[in-house]
Amino acid sequence: MSSSSRPGKTAPKLLHDFLGFDPLKVQHNVNVLVDHPPPQGDGQTHGSPIGSCKHDYTTKTKQSVVPPLDHRPDPTTKYKIAAVCKKCRIHADVRIDYAQSTVPCPSSDYPLHHFRRLDAAADDVTPDRIRYAWQCSAPQCRAMLHVSYRMARLTDKEKDSLTNTEQLKRRYDAVVQQEPSRDGIRQATPIEALGRLRRYIRDSLNPAHNKRTLPANNKRFMEAFGVFGQDCRGLLERLGFKYAVSLLDANAHITEDSLLTSAQDDIEWTLPNPPELDDRLDADGSSQRELLEDVELELLAWTSKIAIETGSANTATEGWPSANLDIERTLASQGYQRHITLRRVAAKSNDELPYFASLGALPDFADSLIEFAYDRQSMCDPERTPYYFECLQVITQSRGTEQLQMKVATLSSQDVVSRRDLSAAYRFLNIHPPEAEVLSDERIVELFQAQQPDMGLTAAEEARQALNKIGTARRSQLLINASRQSVDTYEDALSWLGNGASKDMPDDTLLAIYTSKIADNKANEEVGQKAIATIARARQSNMLNNWLLTGNTTSYTMNVDVALRHLGIEQPIDDIDPLVVPVVFESARSDRPGDLTEKAIAAIQQHLAGRTHATSRSPATWPVGLTSHGNTCYLNSLLQYYFSIKPLRDIVLDYDKYKLDTLAHTEKQERVGQRKISMVEIKGGQRFAEDLIHLFQRMIKESGTAVKPEEDLVCRAFLEPKDYALLASSTNEQIPTINGLEHSVDHKIPDAPIQQDASATREARQHSDASSTTLIGSANGGDEDVLMQNGGMPPTPPASPGQRAVDDKQQPVNPPPLPPRRFSVTATAKEEALAKAKTKATMQQDVTEVHDSIMFRLRSGMMPLGMDDLGEQTDALRSLYAIGMTETRVNKGVASKPAAQIDSSVQLNVPYEATDIYSALDEVFDLQPYGESPDIETYKSIRSLPPLLQISIPRIGFDMKKGGTFKSEELVRLEDELYMDRYCDTSHPEVPQRRKRCWGWRKELQARKRELKVLSLTGVDQLDGPAAIAETASYLGGLAETNDMVREVGVEELEMDKDLPSALTTTAHQQNERLSALKEDIDDIQKRLDFQFQDLQNLKYRLAAVFIHRGTHGHGHYWVYIHDFTNNIWRMYNDEHVSEVTKLEDVFEAKTWNQGTPTYAVYVQDDKKEQVVQAVCREPETPLVPEIRWSTHQQDVHMIDGGTQYAPVKYVDPKMIEEGGKERWDSARIRRDSFDALDTIASRLGESSPQELSFVGAHAKRRRGGGGDVSPPKIRRLMADRADGLRGSSVLPCLVELDLDGSDHRLDWLEKRV
Q1: Which residue would you say has higher pLDDT here, 739 or 833?
Q2: Measuring CA to CA, which residue among 933, 875, 927 is closest to residue 904?
């Protein structure tokens, strides 16, 4: 582990380890104070060695600098706590220095110190002392911490000389012998000897104590230290006592004879006189005063210890106050938030403690501190983030608190993978985790692919999640793409196919692999086709391209237009009566038998077979679909919902009437979403509404079956309004500034003045910068921004057909230049912002969140109609769905005053078992616990209902066993008719009382269901609890016969209580009866609940829309069902496909994977349903289409000097062209896409374009399924015949898109004709 990447410990954890660390018992390479424990299961768990002292420190107040109460440290602050242990007499110093701090901990961002140990080189080690160093990891704190230890001052020998009773007995005998006639001499006890030395030391430390000498023949002195103190002279002199004799030199050797001959009154001891210390903060324990202070406390500790051991009276009156609080304050860890639970739980399992220790935390940390500890460890030691995430998961699983569950869910959504999840992922793919390190990514993909055919849908999805976790942990894009079934690159496509697919494998072999793969699972068909398309592009393979176009893998299949010409059919394919087709085929086989005829028949049959039911519907009577931008199904579903709600649709289409006049109003006092909004957000909402208006208009006027929302609209749904300017198209209108506030939300400053007409502005916005940068992006890097050089002007657009023509003399000789090909530019802030929008838009989003965001944007730009009691803006949009509710708290049976609430939807709980809409609503509105208080409960009621009742059905939950998020697939049965009387206390006088009865019944019901589940679930299918016990009894009953058999062969029989089988049989019978009783009780309670509100059906709602999601919590697909009450049908809006629902159980009772799961339901008031929900709003614009009939010998036209020459039609059979030859290998598909684009442009230009362009658009629509007949030369010829009407139109840029081979970008021939 690098020095810059090192974990740490929070201050409370460091204090905990400090109190448990015994420097005298350090094991080899294990130091619980300074070392960080290894990951659980990877090494020896850290702990205090056996025999370690459980310290009882007291503060040495005279050597400490304790933090003052309520003092905030600054860079000059230093604290020191000097302490000594009562048990082992070890001395410890804790010093902290804030010299490097600017914002010391604790702070709002760093509630505790998080100390990381410095390098071992920073340790100070001497024979009698060791010092360790840490530094706080908070970047603005950086406090330095030092902890040092010193050995006890008194040695064991010195202590023994004072407390050994034998030595004290000898001293007593020696004193009696010295002075036999002296009265009062007695043997000193160990406690008395310690106490007398301690009293002398205390006198020495007291500057006010004047008497500094004592006679050496003092009988109490001699009883403790020997005759004249000679037995303890070494100890006394080391402490600073001085021995003085008038007749003998103090340093002379004292003999018994000299003592006998000397005058006893002339012998005395002088007490030490240590000087005061100038700076105790920097004192290192080497001074005499510190020595005496330490010994004095050690003597006190020994006195207490001996008194306890011997049962003697403790003569010391002082206590031993704990130093823990002082150290806590020094480390700024006092009063930290602790986890409090009202549940009665056992002590923390020893299996969990290492996970707390690894986070540098304590088991009593509050959830917020656990989050803080995880964040600090992950930041300081990123290499072990997966393990720290595992620690967080284990703790979360143990506590089960919402805060930690949300933290784990958030980290999971950010692709953080824990160590145990990674191991589980490897095991799921049958990979032994220790072997995974040597496996390549390619090999892991192969193992993953090999298991797919044998897996069901659920197992296959879990396998993809496992592969995604492995890819995230290994930082392998290959594995991540494989898990997401991404086939965007050649390598990803081959990886998805698996089975050894490689770049040198023949095309037909790849198709064989594809066929085998989808045969096992039809759900892979769409992804498989994308993979083949990616490979086809990379190889420029005609065979693969033909297969993609026709589905034929054996040979080239004829284009449908070519097939019609070959069979002599003049009518377009869509005009042919299917009833006459068999007759035409028989005639063709008779007149022109052969392979080409069969290919033509096959092409026409395939085309006719591919027709959908939607093509036969009248555009005016059927809603239009919305084409996805890749992964924007959730947004398409919301847009369809908005469009089907007539009041909402009217508000959008007539938004100018509702929007705030920003010239007259510079701000809004009303809040939106309970917060103050800025003018930028107001303008942003109005700009977003413009895009929505344009989309709704296109949905109304579109003559086809689907339209594609503009990329700007998609991006604005995820860009902050302040970033809308980054989406600015070529529009360069100057927007005024009011009071210094720039109102330009969608504004770009030009390099030079530019003038454009309105039509050009509209066209520019339709093809804004976002179009090529955000969601689609061309494969070959085209369609990028035009790079202006030297302030040059952009290409001048052709004049609008609606404008007055300029005099011919003033017209330039050459036609207007065409837009040049775009070039790549250096990444800018715009591209970065749009990249973020792309990332958000193309990732699966939650419909509820996006819906709330869009409503916020639209309401932000609207003129307030008023303001409610909470300061929230009232407006026409809010009145559609605002639900008025009240929340009432009940404290010990006493209800408080109901608190008013307003919400846009009712949010249900995540379903953990199959339920229905009423039961799910009951969970929200019923009486339930409030917070963690056992005395407070709360319930909700409805006080006002809107026309649209929106109900959110969240699906993302937290799996306590797996320790991660999951998507609930449980059934939520929806009702077509929903009566809300039961939740509205004012709807009927009896509602409150009935609700209270139901609360009690539902509690009984849940208790019965829990008991039923316990008795029923055994882990064995079709075997409940009583049956399992009965089977056990039967088995044990047969052991008697078994024992007879084993005795015959000389084997010891099995011992068993003979009454056990009968006892089990009785238990099984009792449990079976209890099961029956429970089921009867459940049925009875459910009937009572169902009957309770049957007579209250005044507040009636009908189901109007249901949003469905199929997939996991990270991936999947959305669609929406919408009820057309006018026509009494349900429709399924699945991106560009809108179809009638034939199976209503898909809407009301979706329970299979294919049916998906409802995530959002919308009900409409029954009496307003047909006025509010109007799903069909179409006024398709039909272009003028002249009748055209093509002859069988139709040829392309070449103009030569005003004449006409017909050339043979060029039919291109891809199998006759080399791979990558002059002819574009995928020209058929590109031609089809080009006609789609031409059709779209024609419909957008509308009345501003000539009829001829509408003709071309309609003709392209007819022919876009093929392309052989409608080639660029034919389009040129058709346009040339009508050249007089094309001057100034926008057709030339459109025809550039049809220039397939790139050889005629400027269309010189057509320009000359025009």
Answers
A1: 833
A2: 875
Task: Please tell me which of 120-129, 140-149, 629-638, 1294-1303 the model is most confident about, judged by mean pLDDT.
Answer: 140-149
The CA distance from 1289 to 61, in Å, is 95
Cα–Cα distance list, 828 to 748, 778, 1109, 1255 (Å): 14, 19, 36, 42
* Contacts made by residues 932-937, CB under 8 angstroms, sequence distance 24+: 932/340, 932/341, 932/342, 933/342, 934/342, 935/891, 935/892, 936/889, 936/890, 936/891, 937/889, 937/890
Query: CA 1311 to CA 1301: how far, in whole Å?
Result: 18
Record the tokens describing residue 1156, joined without a space.
């998906």
Q: How confident is the model at residue 1033 (pLDDT cuts 50, 70, 90)?
A: confident
What is the C-alpha separation between 127 and 1209, in angstroms, rounded?
102
Residues 463, 469, 470, 472, Cα dihedral to 10°: 140
How many contiguous H segments (helices) and E segments (strands) does the chain have? 47, 36
Give 1150-1198 pLDDT, tens digit per residue.
988 878 999 999 999 999 999 999 999 999 886 544 443 333 343 444 4
Tell me what pLDDT residue 1234 has.
53
**Structure tokens, 935:** 């005395």
What is the spatial distance between Cα 783 and Cα 822, in angstroms, rounded to a whole number?
5
pLDDT of 14: 94
What is the C-alpha to C-alpha distance for residues 889 and 897, in angstroms, rounded to an integer?
8
Q: Is 950 exposed, middle or buried (0-12, 13-18, 19+ CB in 10 A)?
A: buried
How far CA 577 is from CA of 567, 582, 704, 1154, 1187, in Å, comes to: 15, 10, 21, 36, 17
Q: How far apart are CA 482 and CA 484, in angstroms?
A: 5
Q: What is the Cα 976 distance to its own chain's centre?
A: 34
Q: How far apart are CA 1289 and CA 798, in angstroms?
A: 6
Q: What is the mean pLDDT of the chain?
A: 76
Interval 345-383: pLDDT, tens: 444 567 788 999 999 999 999 999 999 999 999 999 998
Lowest-pLDDT range, 213-227, 1019-1033, 1096-1110, 1236-1250? 1236-1250
The rounded radius of gyration (Å) of the Cα atoms in the chain is: 44
Q: What is the rounded CA–CA span in Å between residue 898 and residue 58?
A: 54
Q: What's the token pair of residue 86? A: 């009562």
- Report whether 991 contacts 985 (CB < 8 A): yes
DSSP SS3 for 147: strand
Spatial separation of the C-alpha atoms in residues 96 and 106, rounded to whole Å: 14
Half-sphere exposure of residue 412: CA atoms within 13 angstroms, side-chain side: 25
Q: Cis omega before residue 106 (within 30°)?
A: yes
Instruction: Give the residue-averaged pLDDT of 750-762.
Output: 37
Alpha-helix residue ranges (DSSP H) falling in 560-660: 560-566, 581-591, 595-609, 633-644, 646-653, 655-658
Distance CA 759, CA 733 (A): 14
Please answer whether residues 683 and 807 qualify as being in contact, where contact means their C-beta atoms are separated by less than 8 angstroms.
Answer: no
CA–chain centroid gap for 1234, Å, is 41
b/e burial code for range 963-983 (CB count within 10 A of at least 16 → b): bbbbbbbebbbbeeebbbbbb
The H or E element that residue 742 is part of is strand 741-742
Q: What is the mean pLDDT of residues 772-784?
A: 35
Amino acid 1218: pLDDT: 37
Contact (CB, 8 A) for 715 and 888: no
Backbone torsion region of residue 1307, taken as left when φ is above 0, otherwise alpha when ψ lies between -120 and 50, otherwise beta: left
CA 1134 distance to own-chain centroid: 27
Cα–Cα dist 1120/625, whole Å: 12
- Say which residue the tokens 């629509």 belong to: 1261
**What is the pLDDT, as a whole number, of residue 1094?**
82
Q: How confident is the model at residue 830 (pLDDT cuts 50, 70, 90)?
A: low
- Beta-strand pair 915-916/972-973: parallel
